[in-house]
Amino acid sequence: MPIPLQKLFTYKITEAEADFIEIGTRVAVPFGKSKIYTAVVFEKHNEEPTAYEAKEIYQILDEYPIVTKLQLDQWEWISSYYMCSLGDVLRASLPKAFLLESETLVLKRTDFDREEILNDEEYLIWEALEQESKLKIHDISKILDKKGVLSVINGLLAKDAIEVKEEIFEQYRPKYVKYADLTSRYQSEQELHQLLDGLGRAPKQREILLNFFQLKRGKKEPVLLKELREKSRASSVVIKRLVDKGIFEIIEVREDRVSFETESRPIHELNDWQLDALRKIKGVFKEKEVCLLHGVTSSGKTEIYTHLIADTLKKGKQILYLLPEIALTTHIISRLQLFFGDHISVFHSRYSVDERVEVWNNLLSNSDKAQIILGARSSVLLPFSNLGLIIVDEEHESSFKQFEPAPRYHARDTAILLGKLHNANVVLGSATPSIETFYNVKQNKYGYVRLDRRYGDVMLPEIELVDIKEKHRKKLMKGHFSDRLLKLMEEALLEKEQIILFQNRRGYSPVVECSTCGVAPQCPNCDVSLTYHKFNNELKCHYCGYHQGLPRTCPACENPTLDTKGFGTEQIELELQELFPGSNIARMDLDTTRGKYSYQKLLKSFHEREIDILVGTQMLTKGLDFKNVTLVGVLNADNLLNFPDFRAHERTYQLMVQVSGRAGRDQKRGKVAIQSFNPYHQILQQVTTHDYLGMYEDQMNERHQFSYPPLMRLIRIMLKHKDLIKVDSAANWMGKSLQNSFGDQVLGPTSPSIGRIRNKYIKTMLIKLPANKSLKAPKHLISKIRDSFMSISEFRSVQVIVDVDCY
C-alpha cells in the first residue's frame, strides 16, 4: 500500500475474484475508518491474519497487471537494501495517476426533517443538497466561501442531517485526436460532383469540402480536423453542419502525447579506437554482466552506445539509457532520434503525469515506441518486460542518488540489480569514474575498457591555472575576472568562437552583510543566510524557498550599509554585459530552466550560435557537445575543494575535468582557465595533467586511513523535530543505543553544518560498517533500535530517516 508502513496487509476476496485477480494488479482497499487507497497485489494466499480481521477489497481496478513480477522483486530489494517500506517504493515507482485517491462525498439523509435546528451555514449546505445529490468538500468550500469547512460538516453529521462516503476517481485521461473523413455515401466521382453542386448555396461548407480534397489528395488516411479547420478558416459550427448532413464523419483516434519521428539515417561508422573498445565491451559481456567504459571527454562514447543499442534492438530487446540530468536528455534525444526516433520514449519529472502513464503502458505492452527508454534516475523503476541493455552515462554523477523522499536509492546500483534480474548487460560510462566503481574494477567485479583518444584525434584541452591571489595583489582583476581569462575570452570572441563559464552558485550573491554591524539576513526557517537575486531584487532561501524583498537598511542597526559577499551566476552575467556589451550572454541554472522546454530552447540557441557566452552551474558540465566552444573558464575552484565532505576532492576533480571537456571538441584544440587562490593544490595539478590514476590512488590512501567508502559502508541516521530540546534528547538516546550495539563504528550524534531546515532541527549519526561483510544483520539491529525508539511516547513525533550509502 502507498503508505510508509513496513508490512504487507491481507484482504478478503471471493473465489471468483481470486480467479480474476493477478499479482501486480491494482485494487482499491479500505484502510482505517474511512480512507480508500490504491494498493498493488503482492501475493495470493489462504492464511487468515491473526492480529486483525481481514476486510474485503473495495474494487478491482485493472484487468491485467500493471506491475511485473520482476518489478516486485526489484521493489523488495530496494526496500530491504535501502531500509524503507514497500509503500515508499510503490509511491516512487508508479506515476501519480495510477495511485487513485479517494474523495469524501457529502450526501443528504432522506430521513432528516428538522431543518429548524440547522444554523445559517449548515442550512446553505442542506439547501445545496436539495439541488445536488452529492457534494465534494471543495464544492462546500465554494458555497460557504471559506477554506475550513470540516467544523460545519461535523455539525451536520452530529445532527444526523448528512452522511459521508469515500469515492475513488481516475486521474489519467487518454489523449484523443479528431480526424474528418467522407461518409460511405460519397465514394464515387458522380456522387461527389452532385454533392458540390448541391452546396452552391452554402459557400462556407463548399470551401471546407474543397480544402478537404486538397489535404486528402493522394492519401488514404482521414484528414486531421484541426488542420482542416485552420486551412478553411472555418468554425466548428460549419463543420458540425456537414456532419449533421451525413457528409463528414468524425473519427477519434487515441494517440500518445509525446512521440519522436525517425529520419532513418545510417549509424555513424566508428573509428579504429572506438571499434576496438566496442569489441572489448562485447568480450567483457561474455564473462561479466557489468563493464566500465572509461573514455576521455569527447572520445565518442555515445557513438559506441549507439552501436550497442542497434545490436540489442536486432535481438528484439529493450534498452534503458540512464542520464544524470534532464538537460542532457534533450541533447541525447536529438542525437539518437536520427537513428531510432520511433523506438524512443523519454521518462523524467518534467514530463506530465499523463505522458509518464503512456510510457509505462507502452513498456508493459512491449510497444515499438518504448524499445529505448531515455530518462533520469526514476526510469530505473519502470516495468521492463524484455530488457537487454542498460547504459548508465556519466555514472559518477551524484544526481543519480535520491535523497528526499524515501526510497533513498542510487540509480546506478539499482540499475546493476535490474540488469541481474533481467540477465541484461550493463555499461557504466564516464570520463571520470566514481572511486567506488573503479574500486570494483580493481576487485575484478566489473569489466574495464579504456578509450583514451578523442574523436577525430583532437588533442585534450590545454588547462591553465590562474593564481587570483597574485592577481588581486597586483590589481589585475576586473570584477571576478583575471586579466588572463579576459584576454583569452577576447581572443575567442574575435575568432567568432563560443565560451562556457562555470560558477557553481546561482543567484547574485550568497550573502548580504551590513558593513557597519556585520549582521546578514537569515532565513527564518533554516540556519542559512539568504541569497540575493538581483533580477527580482529579493533575498531567497535555496533550502525551503522562503523569499523577501531586499531591505533598504540593515534590520539590526538600521544603517543603509548593506554589502554583498561572494558571487553567483547572476553577478557574472551582469559583469559580462558590462565587459562585453556587443556579445550575446545567457545563463543556465535552476532559475532559468524551470519551464518544461526551457533546457531545450537554451541549448538549441547555444547550438545555433545565437549565444556567445554561456554562464552556468554544474548542469553545464555533463556530456554536452558543442563544436564551436573553444574556451572554458572556471571562475573559482576553491568553493568545491573546501566543501566539508569526504568526497570533496574526488568531486572537484570530476567537475573540473568534465567542464574542461566541453572545450575544443572539433578540430581546434580547446583552452581552459581555472581561477584559484591555491593553484598548487594537488587536485588542481592532477586536473591539468588529466591524472585520474594519481587522483584515485591519493583518495584511496586517505579513505583507507580514515575508514571511508569504498572500503567501508556508511549508514546515516538523521533525526528531525521542530523542538531542539526534544531532538537533542532523542539523538542522545539513539546514539547510546547504537554505540551499545556497534561500539566505535558510530560517529555522533552531531549537528550538520546546516542544523535547521524548514523549521526542523537536525541531528545525525553515522555508522561505518566493513564493506566485505553482509549488511543483513547490522540492518536488522538498526531496525530493532528504530522500532524501540518509535515505541517511546516521548519520541513518537521525532522523524527518523535512515539513509544507506548516504554519499
Write the layout of secondary structure elements.
Blueprint: H1 15-20, E1 26-31, E2 35-40, E3 59-60, H2 69-81, H3 86-93, E4 102-108, H4 120-131, E5 134-136, H5 137-144, H6 150-158, E6 162-168, E7 175-182, H7 189-198, H8 203-216, E8 223-224, H9 225-232, H10 236-244, E9 248-255, H11 272-285, E10 290-295, H12 301-314, E11 318-322, H13 326-340, E12 344-347, H14 353-364, E13 372-375, E14 387-393, H15 411-422, E15 425-430, H16 435-442, E16 447-451, E17 462-467, H17 468-473, E18 477-478, E19 481-482, H18 483-494, E20 498-502, E21 511-514, E22 531-533, E23 538-540, E24 547-549, E25 562-565, H19 569-579, E26 585-588, H20 598-607, E27 613-616, E28 629-634, H21 638-641, H22 648-660, E29 671-676, H23 682-688, H24 692-706, E30 712-721, H25 724-742, E31 746-750, E32 756-757, E33 760-770, H26 776-791, E34 799-804
Parallel strand pairs: 10-15, 10-16, 11-13, 11-14, 12-13, 14-15, 17-29, 20-27, 20-28, 26-27, 28-29
Antiparallel strand pairs: 1-2, 1-3, 4-5, 4-6, 7-8, 7-9, 18-19, 21-25, 22-23, 23-24, 30-33, 30-34, 31-33, 32-33
Describe the structure.
It is a single chain. With 807 residues, the protein is α/β, with parallel strands linked by helices. The protein has 6 domains: 15-98, 3-Layer(aba) Sandwich (GIY-YIG endonuclease), CATH 3.40.1440; 109-159, no CATH class; 184-246, no CATH class; 272-455, P-loop containing nucleotide triphosphate hydrolases (Rossmann fold), CATH 3.40.50.300; 462-508 and 567-701, Rossmann fold (3-Layer(aba) Sandwich); 712-804, Ribosomal protein S10 (Alpha-Beta Plaits). 35% of the residues lie in helices and 21% in strands. The protein contains 26 helices and 34 strands. The strands form 9 sheets. It has a 7-stranded parallel sheet with strand order 12-13-11-14-15-10-16, sandwiched between helices. A 6-stranded parallel sheet has the order 17-29-28-20-27-26, with helices on both faces. Helix 8 (203-216) crosses helix 9, helix 11 (272-285) packs across helix 12 and helix 22 runs parallel beside helix 23. The mean pLDDT is 88.
